[in-house]
Amino acid sequence: MLYRETGQYKTSYAADSVIFPIRQDRIGVMIVLAIAFVFMPLMMAFKIPPFRNDYILLAILLPFLILSLAAIGANILIGYCGQISLGSGAFMAIGAYMAYKFGTGISEIGLPPLPIVVSILLGGFSAAFVGILFGLPSLRIKGLYLAVATLAAQFFFDWVFLRVKWFTNYAPSGSVSAPELKFFGYLVSTPIEKYLVALIFVTIFALIAKNLVRGNIGRQWMAIRDMDIAAELMGIRPLVAKLTAFAVSSFIIGVAGALWAFLRLGTWEPLAFDINRSLELLFMVIIGGLGSILGSFLGAAFILILPILLIVVPAEIGLPITTETVSHLQFIIFGAMICFLLIKEPLGFARLWQIGKEKLRMWPFPY
Amino acid sequence: MQELGSFLEVLISGLLAGVLYSLVALGFVLIFKASGVFNFAQGAMVLLAGLALVRCLDFLVARGMPFWAAVALGMIFAAAVMAICAFMVERYVLGPLVNQNALTMFMATIGATFVIEGVAQMIFGSDVYPLRLFPTDAWIAGEGVFPGGILINKLDVWGGVIAGLLVVALALFFQHTKTGRALRAVADDHAAAQSVGIPIAWIWFVVWLVAGLVALVAAAIWGTKLGVQFSITFLALKALPVLIIGGFTSVPGAIVGGLIVGAGEKLAEVYLGPFIGGGIEYWFAYVLALAVLMVRPQGLYGEKIIERI
Amino acid sequence: MSDTPQTLLSVENVTLKFGGVTAISGVSFDIRKGEIRAIIGPNGAGKTSMLNCINGFYHPQEGRITYKGETRERMRPHVAASQGIARTFQNVALFRGMTTLDNIMTGRTLKMKANIFWQMLRIGPALKDEIQHREYCEEIIDFLEIEHIRKVPVGRLPYGLQKRVELARALAMQPDLLLLDEPMAGMNLEEKQDMCRFILDVNKTYGTTIALIEHDMGVVMDLSDRVVVLEYGRKIADGTPDEVKSDQKVIDAYLGVPH
């Protein structure tokens, strides 16, 4: 009964086209944001359970935020524009390494170390640039062929960051460490601070992504996805639509990659962004919901929480289970989830959520 | 002469390694031809077949069975496992997805990949298991022509011979049997094939079984070379560029593509590697495939696509 | 309409081949500003191929197509669209994952000018674009009587409504020339009547020139000002509905003798 839109009349198209047209949704989002920005940090600061230690923060919340951001990026390309990509990990890597280069300065061209926010954004722009390059073939190559082409990006950049020493500032071990995390003069070092930085980035980019997908450019992406020939006959230029999708998607993934490296890992190797990362992002998008920003969050949450549940639950009920079995079980459950969702609900959790809301709107009446 | 000799040695070892890529690619092509499904799980199937074979073999040999009998039983056991796998995939993954678009099917096989990998390792273990089915020593050819002769690995030659036989058998199967024709009909259009009474479920089971057996052969050869282990699944990823180069629907394409990739990456590694840092085997095949796609979007042997509305 | 009708588009000696198959051979006709022009003929006569040539999806090997006084070389379909040619499709080609409103809004793509940075923030020009074009789309929605399905994903709509949404999407482009490929195929009588009314209204209200392919002879004869008849890729007749109806070649090839 609480969730009704009856009596909420729209008197202008502007009011009808806001992100959350239903008042209850707006209140809900406000509450979620309040919890994320105020309530949780307070609980963490005072170490109120479940935040007794930093485990939940570092092992769940921070990865959740950053991977959600990456999943939003992947979803723009795969879910909204219909261009399947198996190379998202490579674009995270490009974001991470280029942000690192900009953050530590590029002596060859006399560029001093740049401020961290600028570096992260430049990392994103570098990824976008490469994304456009690898998007160019998408004009001629479609569907599955394109998927393999994106694999080329994945393997090529794995190799580049492993072998081309310039990217790692000639570090003998091949691994690199993030520059000092000074955001506008403020040194970010504690887990709570990292969490808040990630949260700010994710909030801003999720809003930007949402604005794009519900605007003109988003409609062009979806038109290309649903029927590219008809889209072209409508005056949509496939070149522009696909390349903007590649660029925006790669940019967001690149920023997520930089955040992942700087905030989550601190010190990293190319292995952190290998093909498994790409597949993981693809899974998040499918499980969460193709073509849904909310779904990207749901998918990321599921993929992160499942393994933890697999470790925690058997331990709680006293079932002996080795870490090896856990990883195998994880494989099986992910795989089965993917198949199940593709068969039963191709639009993922986001669609289930939407159906739930529709039901709730009618409740207690069936129609 | 010395240089030509070493060039030939690299080329031959590359070509023979390429044969193995071809074998995996062949499994893809079979399934794609028969169901229009791009099967990401082929690598997982190689892993499953290999693990089933080697674990059964070890088990029987440890119980004192003679090696040849153990091999025979192991093969039968592995084939049975592949049959079960084919049945499950058809029944629970592809069957419910009949008439869906190609990308959905593709993603479903990625899901299947994970399930198969998880199950295979849970049942059969996840260590490296050595397998000795073929001789692995080398013989030396052309000693009179080149100083020192050319080193050729016997295992690679075995692989080449077996792959050749398989291709001939499959070509005959596709072109000259009723099932083969039905397979091609299904690949063209699920709904249309169903409507003329082709039992799609049975056809898919057959083709996944055949692909499973091809995977078993590939596993036997690769397992002898490197031991049966998880990294064998990456082999499948190597087969993707092979497919791109050869085209998704062409059996000869898979073979030629495999040879090009195998020879190309070995030659590139030896002659180009030193200049740009080595390890380019890792990506060479993909970039080659990308280059081919830019010129011919349907691969070397694929059919040209006419767009209509 | 003025007394001396202006030619909007003329097709001269167009020949289109696919490999060895000749889909259209040496067809010429013209479309005058403001008229409803029908293209009829048996299946496989090359009608849809003709439309595809007109909006740049196929490129004829021979012949010329002159639109608004300009003869064009190989052009991409989106260029044709930007010059004011819109169309609907024989098999509904809507964007199935999008709502009716979003589908219609894609028709306004070419008219939206705000760049991506405004769109990211959805303020200023981007928001103005959205609202202003939404208003225009709502007019069309109103006109075609599809208000109730505004926010329904088109994949869920029945066939007749999908056809109507497709027409709406084409109209949203404010085309000068509207190509309709079998707009009434597969509809029941009532839906056909509605569709006829919409087509006539579009022609009258917006002054849009319309070229349509249709198999229902009653509809063709009632709606169109002039008819061109194709058979096996050749033109066999061209004229007013009455002239065409009594043409012996057309009767033999297509219409048949009433029993």
Summarize this, please?
Chain A is mainly alpha-helical and 367 residues long. Chain A is built from 14 helices and four strands.
Mean pLDDT of chain B: 82
Could you give the order of the helices and strands of chain B? HHHHEEHHHHHHH
CATH topology of the largest domain in chain A: ABC transporter involved in vitamin B12 uptake, BtuC
Major sheet size, sense and barrel closure of chain A: 2 strands, antiparallel
CATH class of the largest domain in chain A: Mainly Alpha
Report on this structure:
Chain A has 367 residues and is an all-alpha fold. Chain A folds into 2 domains: 21-52; 53-362, ABC transporter involved in vitamin B12 uptake, BtuC (Orthogonal Bundle), CATH 1.10.3470. Chain A contains 14 helices and 4 strands. The longest helix of chain A has 28 residues, at 238-265. By secondary structure, chain B is mainly alpha-helical. Chain B has 11 helices and 2 strands; from the N terminus they run ααααββααααααα. Chain B has a two-stranded antiparallel ribbon with strand order 1-2. In chain B, helix 2 runs antiparallel to helix 3 (67-94) and helix 10 crosses helix 11 (281-295). Helices cover 38% and strands 24% of the residues of chain C. In chain C, the strands form 2 sheets. Chain C has a 6-stranded mixed sheet, with helices on both faces. In chain C, strands 2-1-4-5 form a 4-stranded antiparallel sheet, with helices on one face. Chains in contact: A-B, A-C, B-C. The interface between A and B is large, with 44 and 49 residues.
Based on the model shown, name its key terms.
heterotrimer; A: about 375 residues; mainly alpha; ABC transporter involved in vitamin B12 uptake, BtuC; 2 domains; two-stranded antiparallel sheet; 4 strands; B: about 300 residues; 11 helices; 2 strands; about 75% helix
Element layout with pairings:
The complex is a heterotrimer of chains A (367), B (309) and C (259).
Chain A: H1 13-16, H2 23-45, H3 55-80, H4 88-104, H5 116-135, H6 143-163, E1 176-177, E2 182-183, E3 186-187, H7 191-213, H8 216-226, H9 228-233, H10 238-265, E4 267-268, H11 275-288, H12 293-316, H13 323-344, H14 348-362
Antiparallel strand pairs in A: 1-4, 2-3
Chain B: H1 2-35, H2 42-62, H3 67-94, H4 102-124, E1 138-141, E2 150-153, H5 154-176, H6 178-188, H7 190-195, H8 200-226, H9 232-246, H10 251-276, H11 281-295
Antiparallel strand pairs in B: 1-2
Helix pairs in contact in B: 1-5, 1-6, 1-8, 1-9, 1-10, 2-3, 2-4, 2-8, 2-9, 3-4, 3-8, 5-6, 5-8, 6-8, 9-10, 9-11, 10-11
Chain C: E1 7-18, E2 21-32, E3 36-40, H1 47-54, E4 62-67, E5 70-71, H2 77-82, E6 85-87, H3 100-106, H4 116-121, H5 125-143, H6 159-172, E7 177-181, H7 189-205, E8 209-213, H8 217-223, E9 226-231, E10 234-239, H9 241-246, H10 248-255
Parallel strand pairs in C: 3-8, 3-9, 6-7, 7-8
Antiparallel strand pairs in C: 1-2, 1-4, 4-5, 9-10
Helix pairs in contact in C: 3-6, 5-6
